[in-house]
Structures are given as structure tokens and as C-alpha cells.
């Protein structure tokens, strides 16, 4: 099962790529992701007979080791315990949801195009006296031939022009969608109906329908496979290889399928930051291997980590490398750009999976390999985390775009995770692990909802939105639910990690009380900026961009409901997850 958990999405990616011109390619990807989820879900079976490793009887649930290049300390060594399993399961779940998002969206798009072609064929049979049809992709609202009320004529875009929907109202003004922007003039008009799962890429150019391309599904599966391998790797060299393997498909998702106006710059910035951090991380890993004489992660942790002489050096190198991916302030600036430019599914994986690679590496790898160095560096790490919480909160209070706001909120949430880890107590480590997983459920849900809003309204500007609770009450209700979970409302998943982070910092006493107060004030800021977002998006009169938008479809409900259920489950019943963390090797 350990091998299948990582191999199935990789094989699925290859199959989807090979069959990318077939209409069923998306569903092959969704099937591969579902099988991988089943394989990960079955990993706890038989864990009572865990595989003994070196040390004080510490155990993995399961472990597999196959020699690969022993002279390079490289083994294909996989292992799983309560910490790595929860993150591998989260990765598999988000992989399934993202593939379903693409598959259902492609089906609906094909149905819409078929309907458009049928309508065009019918229109061509009209009498010669009938009004001329508008160019593909346009909607014209003008006076009726008899001078009566306005007539709305709609013709769906062809595949070559589907990204450019224009709405004209005589000479009085226009509502035009271009690369995610909305310009409104004249009287408010009903937006074109949106079906199924929303698109995640901007319009225009050769990539205008790229969000539903099977190539995107293949890249999503590649990210899932490499990320799963990171969480299951028990060999430091294998860990590094898998960590780096995530970079290329994620870069391609942003660079090829993102917003045409910003995707290239955002992808380049993501790559440069990640590579720079990885070089430092690799140096730290190789110093640890040279010091201990082994690349066996579990054995080094069980033995107490590297020697005291190099502990601070190893931790510092690893912490900076992982802080880039986490991201920790001030190494976070790549994240808002990448999130804003990425397609919806790209943002979901960035928040739910890639950020977890950084925090998992910081907690298990950096903290496990160099516990003495972690204790020495804890005050610096804690101060940076607290500053990140405050800075992110203050910035979010002024951000005008919904996806960028959600992206910056992740900087604050990851600040809570890092602060809890830096506290170094049992409560702190568990709060870090819990907050990490909760963020992986709540923030992807927010990005799915933000993507749905942008697909319907063709804008992410908070000032251009409004009245969504009247135009699409179910969508507004889900957005409110996710926002309340993100701000840490008791009874939802976000509460436990943030509350016990404050407790863990306060438990240290002394100057740590100031850090606890800063984190508590950061939670207040989170409530302020998320409620501000809801005020702009959901309340007030219906904005012109929100007229006639569709509410939550059955397909969207199917994709989002597991995240809603997980957020409720972790919020109401946190005990089982905390028990799983106690079975982790830390």
C-alpha cells in the first residue's frame, strides 16, 4: 500500500497524458486519484504490528526499504505513522477533488458547446427577414424591433473565443470580461449562466480553455504523487528528490494555466524562491548525513538527532529552506502572486499540499534531525512567526482582491503553526500539527468558493461584488461557513490549532507572553478582515457583476462537501486526530 499510495497518481498522470486527446481522459485521472485515496486510507490497517526501528522502541506503522544506491546513502525507503498518514490522506483527498473539478467542468463545458452549436444550427434556419446573429461570444441588449422592451440575444462562444464574453447595451456602456476584469456601464444586466464547476484560468490566447485540459489533470496527479512521496519518505536523499519533484509540475500549472496577465512572473518567482530554499535545505540534509553516517530519517530521530556541534547549523539551514515553502514571513512574497495567478485547482493544491511540505519538513525533518538546534533557534523563529501573523492580518485589511486576501491569510495561519512548533512543548507541537491539517481543509474550500465567484462574476474585486447572499444564497452561506472556520470559530476546525498556539506560547511564560498576545491579536485581525470580505461579497444590494449568477450546482456540492464535513468533524471531535499525532515519530 505504501508503494501504491505514491505510484497510482504517478501512473494516472502518465495515462492521462498519453490519452489527453480522448474525451474520457479526465475521468481516468479522477479514477487514479480515487484509487490512490483508497490506498492511503487503508494504511492504518495492521498498524498495531508496526515496524521496529532503531531507538527506544519507536515504531512506524509500516515500513518498506529497498536498496537503490547504497554508496550514496539512497534507499527507496517508505514509512508511515500518525503524523505522515494524516497529511498523505489530505493530499489524496485534495487530489481527488481537484481531478473531479476538472472532469465535471470539462463535461459541462462540452455540454454547453453542444447546446451552443445546436442553437446556432437552429438559428441558421430562421427566415431571411430575421435579425442578424451576433458574432460568437457576444451578448447584445438593445431595443426590440417594435420599440418594446429590451431583447437579450445570447450566443455561446466557440472554443476559439470562449474566454471573451462581451455584453453590450447599445451605446450606453459595456460589461466585458477580459483576463479577469470587469468594466460596467449602462444599466445592470444579467450575467451569463454558469454551469458546473468554475474555470480557474483567465481568458484569452491559446490557453483560454486550458483550465479543463487533460494536461492540467496530469500535472495535478504529478504534484499529488511527488507530495505523497515526501510525506512517506524515510530516507533523506529520497525526501529531497521527492521535494524537488513537486516544483516542475506546480510551476507548469501556474505558468501554463494561470491568469495570462500575471502567470509568467508568478511562476518564475515561485521557482526562484523554491530553488533558493531547496539549495539551503539540501546543504543541511547532507551535513546531517555526513554527521550521522546514515540517511535513515527514523533512525536519526530515534537516536536523538545530529551531534550538538552541528545541530544549530543543520537546523538553521533546514529551517530557512522549509520556511520558504511554509511560507514564513519575510520569505512569503512568492505566495500571494502564485495564488492570485494560479487556476483554482492550482491554488487549492498550493494551500492544501505545498505549504504542508514546508511545515511538515520544519516539524519532522528539521526538528527531528536537530532538536538541540531547534531549541536554540526557537526565540528567533517565534518572533518571525508572530510578526508574520500581525503583518498578514494588517495587509489583509486593505487587500481589494478575494484570492489575494485568502492567499495572504495563509501567511498568518502558517505563522500560528510555526509559533506553536517554536514553543517546543507537547501542547505546542500538537497545536502545530492540528492547525496545519485544519488549514489544509479550510483554505482549499475558500479557494474553491473564490474560484466559483470569479467564474460567475468575472471579477475578484471586493468592491465590484456584493449582494451574493441574495443572488446565490447557498454560495454565500458556504463562503460564510468557510470564513468563520478560517477565523477560528469554536466548533470548527480552525479553532483548536490557533487557541492552543496561544496557550502553548503563554505556557512558556516571560517574553513568550508577548508573543502569545501578538498571536491573539492576530486572531482578532483575522476576524476583522474575513468579516470585511463577507460584508463586501455577501451583503448589500446585488452588484451588477452578481446579477443572474447561478447558485451552487450539484457538481460543486459534491466537490466541496468533503471539505465542509472535514471542517465540522475536526472542529467537533478533535480527539481522534490528537490521538493519531501521539503515534507519530517526532
UniProtKB/TrEMBL annotation:
Residue ranges, compositional bias (Low complexity): 126-142, 185-198
| UniProtKB keywords | Membrane, Transmembrane, Transmembrane helix
Membrane topology listed for this record: Multi-pass membrane protein
According to the UniProt record, where is the region Disordered?
126-153, 165-208
Ranges where the NADH:quinone oxidoreductase/Mrp antiporter transmembrane domain occurs: 233-516
Tell me the compartments it is located in: Endomembrane system; Membrane
Q: Where is the composition biased (Polar residues)?
A: 165-175
Q: Which InterPro entries match?
A: NADH_Q_OxRdtase_chainM/4 (IPR010227), NADH_UbQ_OxRdtase (IPR003918), ND/Mrp_TM (IPR001750)
Pfam families cross-referenced by the UniProt entry: Proton_antipo_M
Protein's recorded name: NuoM family protein
